[in-house]
Amino acid sequence: MRYFFTFIVVFSLLFVSACTKEKPNSHSQLQKKSQNQKTHENPQSSQKDLHNIEKMNVSKNRNAVKTVAQPSAVNVLVNKKYFLPKNYVPKDLVYPTVSFIFKEKIEKRKMRKEAALALNKLFTGAKKDKIYLSGVSAYRSYVTQKAVFNRYVKEDGYENARKYSALPGSSEHQTGLAIDVSSSTGKCAAQSCFANTKEAKWLQSKSTNYGFIIRYPK
Ligand SMILES: [Zn+2]
């Protein structure tokens, strides 16, 4: 029982828009995203934080957010209250053998070994049920998340960026244990419309068998 529980906590299977590069391009989309995003958003911040993302993560918000003590623990909890250390990079990142919606062997294809092996099994299991999945985005370093977030701030303003992008240090992607997935066609990749697909339904019923939980069900 304990083993099962641990595994559920261990990996996160993310497949909604909240944390990805796709920006909302319509009002309704933005709303949907906002509703689905509670755990992707970060601690409430004051205006003072606007130009001080870095500082906020490191020291200013010491009272509001905590830095996790054991970032490499497989059951690490990372969210708006618990941040990973800025310099944390998992030591056992590997490339899962599954297909992604892109070809390149780049950072976002990587996962920690244990998660990558579980993902391989999950994709194989899906195939047996004629469900064809693709990875969209897995590991993301602090530096990458920071660049992504800052770009959104520039384009959209801080408050809007916070609605669909995690502050650096608070993205589960930095754990190397989380991945966004889509169908092999890439349709609705990291968008809320994925929730209505047969692939999403399969994941909903089967992913815990492989140690994953779905973090953004809609
Ligand atoms: Zn994500």
Automatic annotation (TrEMBL):
Domain D-alanyl-D-alanine carboxypeptidase-like core: 109-218
SUPFAM superfamilies: Hedgehog/DD-peptidase
Keywords linked to the UniProt accession: Signal
InterPro entries per record: DD-CPase-like, VanY-like_core_dom, VanY/YodJ_core_dom, Zn_M74/Hedgehog-like
Signal found in the keyword field: yes
GO molecular function: peptidase activity
CDD domains assigned: LD-carboxypeptidase
Biased composition, class Polar residues, residue ranges: 26-47
Coiled coil segments of this chain: none
UniProt signal peptide: 1-18
One of the protein's GO biological processes: proteolysis
Name of this chain's protein: D-alanyl-D-alanine carboxypeptidase-like core domain-containing protein
Organism: Gottfriedia solisilvae
